[in-house]
Each structure stands twice: as structure tokens, then as C-alpha cells.
Amino acid sequence: MAMIDSRRDPLAVSRLSLSLLIVLLAWPVLKAAEFNPGALFDAANLKVIGRFLAAFLPPQTGADFLSELLQATLQTLAIATAGMSLALLVAVPLAYRVSRVCRAHPGLQLITRGLLTVLRGIPELVWALLFVRLMGLGPAAGVLALGLTYGGMLAKVYAEILESVDQTPARASQAAGASRPVAMLYGLLPLAAKELVSYTVYRWECALRASVVMGFVGAGGLGQLMDQAMKMLNGGEACSVLIVFLCLVVLADSLSGWLRQALDAPSQRQPSAFGLRSTWFGLLLTLSIFSSFALLSIDFSDLLSLQAGQSMAWFVSGFFPADMSADVLLKTVYGVWQTLAVSVLGTALAAVAGLLLAVSRPRTLVNAVLNVCRSVPELVWATLTVLAVGLGPFAGALALALHTTGVLGRLFAQAIDNATRAPTLALRHVGASRSLAFVYATLPQIAPQLLAYTLYRWEMNIRMAAILGFVGAGGLGQLLYVALSLMDYPQACTLIIAMLLLSMLVDQASAWLRRLMA
Amino acid sequence: MSIRLDQLDFVHPNGLVALKRIQLQVRAGEQVALIGPSGAGKTTLLSVIGARLVPTRGQVTVLDQAVDMQDEHSLRLLRPRIGSIYQSPPLPARQRVVTAVLAGRLGVWPVWKSLASLLYPMDINGASKVLSQVQLSDKLFDRCDQLSGGQLQRVGMARVLYQQADLALADEPVSALDPGLALAMLQVLQQDASARDATLITSLHAVDLALGCFPRIVGLRDGEIAFDLPAQEVTQAMLDDLFANEATQAKDGDMSAAQHTLIQPPA
To answer: Is the ipTM of this complex over 0.95?
Structure first.
């Protein structure tokens, strides 16, 4: 067997070049994200964050503050609910218009599609910031921002769901002479209803988190209270707000889980499609929507008056034409690059930390840590990391990493649990240590899954990195926040366009990647 | 004495009795074939000898060492010396053959070497040598999910050849191979064992292979040793008796005794 000695690993070259590429790319990424783990242990920073965290205990429980907290909690719930109902008003007609189902000649619907892209491509936080500028501080800005962004998102997903179900019943009724809306109501809706409702409930849960986040730009609710507490470095108050917020997230999580389970329950045999339970639920829902609007005392008639229209038109026209000077463009490009770098660093750190936590024991402790990590939104983490390492993109990367670790850690742990045990056991039985058996036998099984999860989160993190700058964590967001504060609206317009383009690019890239991996 | 099992019982957690009062001694360097109908306890017996299962009762001595599953340290030293061949080799689908084979020495390689080997295989020549023994040298850099069931079985075999274990335990190692290749592969295992004076215990469905290749035959039925004899002393009557229950079950459309001489690919 003379050939034996001449054998080389055919993958060696590609592996080596891949590693080189990663190293070559890692350097500028770390540079742009201002990676500096030393800042975590800087004496001055440690003192600030230490004093702040020390003040967390005991949480603030003064009667005045508690009543303020209760108000803010109700307001947050109301913003989410009112925002969602507004989003539904936006989404249903748009989805009907943009969806290709039941059309004889499916046109491109370019204008509607473009509108959807703009609505959901601009993050809700940016919308909120704009509405705060326009209408002043308060929950109305949050409701409108949610209504627009979530309206765009819901419309897109609704249209996709309608297109994904079996089209034959609807076509049959159309062939029998039914109009498009009737054919959709009778032929498509029964098939798609469960998925539509389930997605809406999930989005309501997201809206709750988003309404807290929007409070940081002055759109009311728990977020605004949290922002005040952070600005005054009042740890006790921040802790109370955080505890209430975590409880709210857990409650919303279980409520939406319960609702989705209820959807699976078989319907009773009765003449009406709606039983006692759905009647109660419908009543409750209507009541909560009305009380939400009442609580927030938003008067939309103000918005529709001539005067408001004029001031709005004047405000919007201030943004155009966008500032396309070389100076601003260069700044914008660097902002985009920094945003990308922050998202890469944050996601990479989270993937490593998530995997380490997913294999750690004891399970209950790890799960508790993961739950806290992912329940706290990125922006709230960012307010803390900014204290811990100072203003700048590294704080943003850390905030992304903390939240994403919670998400990925849970997904990774599930993937590990679902892997076949036999290969790992076989290696344990030739004397391999637990960790070696894991990397040799478990990891190869789940690697594609881990990669898919990580890429998916990276996509979300790019969008998130673009707005973390609102609390001083670098990237496009920080530039936009500064431009808006200086009332340099043309420059703000350029930056918003950049965000929009980035979001569209990510959309395209992830669709391409999904096709590639499928 | 390489292996000594003393009054061994094994009861599965669900209450099923798999082994009863097993009394078995195997000298170092001996080659033994285990035969018996399906469900006789062959796999369980091999798992107990391989320090993979804790017996419900009784003492196990393997490679002159009393097996104590609580003693992690001595177990870590013992296990690299025991090689197991599985009927359907538990190999990760996306792993390459070279890595799957080299994993046989994870128990003795230092950690840095094991980790580096994931990036660049640390012993390509060694893997290539054992793969050519099982006639798979062209599959060195292929992924396991590109191989057939029979090829996978031989990769599992190559891993144990590479491991250089003092005790090789093979559970239906050739069930997915055609008869000619099955014989050749058994001979490879036997030659490797005798060259290193290692002990080899193999369970086989194909009775003719067992009788033709192995000097000592242990017949197992209902978790008990029915006979333990030199191959030439095993009579047709003993075999008929051993597989008798299965023959009656065959009337209900179950597995027949005749099928044991046929080759069954793993599920």
C-alpha cells in the first residue's frame, strides 16, 4: 500500500482559507465594533455599574412610586393593545390588496408592496421617535408607531399565509361565480384562520415588549419610567420596573401559549361557529381595546384636523431633499459598517455563550439565566451595558449578545436534546471525556441546525443593531438620534433611507440564504 | 483470565429478565462466538462485558479488573482497552469517515490532539491503513451519510481496529455484508486479534460462520447459557434445540430459524 503516505486531506485547503478569511474579517469587525473587553473591568466603569447594581436591592416599594408603576404598567398594556388594533386596521386591507390569491391576473402591486416595505423596514423605534417629535411626549406616538410597523409586518405575513394554504376550495367557489372577497371568506379563511390568529397573538406579545422599548424615546409606559430611573441612576426604581416587566413578559408568554392551545381544541357541534367561550373572549377583547384607547385618552380627531395636517406636512417636508453631501454619505456608510460589525460581534459572542450554557448543568439554573437574558429586550440591556463599558458600539454588541444568548441558548439546548444519543455514548464507551464525546458525536449532528438558528438571529440583530444607538450604543441609530436632536432633518432622512436599504438588503440576503440551505 | 462473569443477572428497568445466572470465563487471546435466537440476550451480555451496562446482580471482571461503574477513574482507564462493534454503527451522519475512525482513540489521545484532529485529521495514515483492511480505502474522506449500511458496518469495524483494543466485542458485525465479504471481514477481525493476542467475542446470527471460524461457541437462549463448547463438539441437535422456540414462533409469521443463516441488513 504505497499510496498511503501520499494522502492529504482534500478539505485542508478550503478549511485553511476559510479560517484565514475569518481572521482577516474579524480584525476590522472588532475594530469597528470597538471591541474592548478590558472596559468591563475598568475601575471607573466598575464603580458606576457596581454602585448602580448595588442600589437594585432593595427594589423601590414606596407607595407613590408603586402607584406610578401601576399606571405605567397599565399604559404599556394599553399601548400594545391599541397599537395592535391599529395595526390590524392597517394590515387587513393591505394584505387583501397585496395577496396574489384568488386573482385572475396576479399583478405585482408595486405601490402596495413598496408601502409595506417602507412601513416595516423602518424600525418602530424610529417611527416612535418621529411621532414624538411631531406630537410631543406620550403614548400616542407609541401607538401610532406600533400601528404602522406592525401593520406592515402583519400585512406581509397575512398575505403569505393566505398564499400558503390550499387554493382549490376558493377557486371552486370563484368558478361558481363568487366574487373575490366572498371566495376568500368561504374558501381560504377557514383554512388559514388558525395560523392567522396564532401569528397575531404572537405579534401582540412582541408588541408588549416593543411598547416598553419605545418608552425609552418618550412614548410612555414602563419604558419611560425605566429610562427616567436609569438617567438618575436610581437602581431601586430600575429594579422594580424590571421585575414588573419580567412578570408581564412571563404572563403574556403563558397567555399567548394558552390561546394558541385553545385554538387546537376541537370545536363543539353547534349551529353557530362561535360558542360561549369565543363570545366571552370576543367581549373581553372588545372591552380591552376600548378601555386601552380610553386609558391613553388619545384623540385621533386632533390628528385629522386641517391644522394637524398642515403641521405634519411641514414636518415631513423638512426631511426632503435628503442630505446627500459626500460628508454625510461617508458618515452614513461608516454607520452602516459599524452597525454590521456590532451585529456580527454580538451574534458571535451569543453563539459561543449560548452553546456553553446549553451544555452546562444544572439545567434549572441555566434555564433561569437564559430566561432572564431573553426576557430583557436588547435596548434595555443596552442601557445597562452603556453604564458597564461606556458609550459606543461595544456596549451595543454586548447588549445584543446578552439578549441573543438567552434565545440561542434555549434553541441550542433543544437541538442537543433532540440529537441521537447512541454516537455520543459509543465514544464515552471508548473512554472519551464528556466534552470530547460531545464535540465528536453530538456537534456534527446538530451543527447545521445551530448554524441556521445563528444566521436567523443575526438577521434580526442587524435590524436591532441599527437602533441600539438611540441609547448611545453606536451605529446608525446613534447618528440618527444625534441628527434628530440637532434637528438636522435632511441628514436624518439620509440615515433613515440607509436603514431602510439595510433592512431590504437583509431581507433579500436571508431569502437567498434560505433557498441556498433548503 | 481475561473475562470472568460470576452468577450474573440482568433485569431491564421494565422488568424484562435479559440474563439469568450467567457463568462465563474467557482467557486472554481467546476467540468466542455467541449464538442464539433473537432476544436471547446476546447484545445485553456483550454490553455488560463491555462495561456499558451495570448487571442487576453478580460480579464482572474484565481484563483482570473488577468493573465498578461508580469508579469514574478506573473506568476511564479500562474503557479505551475495550472496543465495541455495533450492528448499526452509531456514527454521526455528517462526520467524515476519517474522523469517525480516528475517534476510536479519543480515550487515549491527549485533548489537544483530539481537538486539532477535528480541523486536520491527526493520523491520516493510521486511518487509511485500517480502512484498507476493511476494503474501504477509497472512502477515507467521504462523509458517513454517503455510505451504504454494509460500508458503515465496516467503518465501525475499522474504528475498533484503529483503537487497538485488548478486548473486542462485536455485535452482529457482518449482518449487512454479503456472505463472501462477511467471511473475509470476520477473518480480518480474527487475524488482528491473534496478532496482538487480544480477546475477541462476537455474536453472530449466521451459525455456519460461527462454527466455521470460531474455536469456541457459546449458545444463549432465554438469557441463559445453553451450551459452551468447542466448535467441533456442537451437534445439529443442540442447534435445533437452541433455535426451537423461534421455529415454533415462525408458524405465527415471525422470524424463522432458517433466516439466521441469511444476511439481514440493519434497520
So the answer is: no
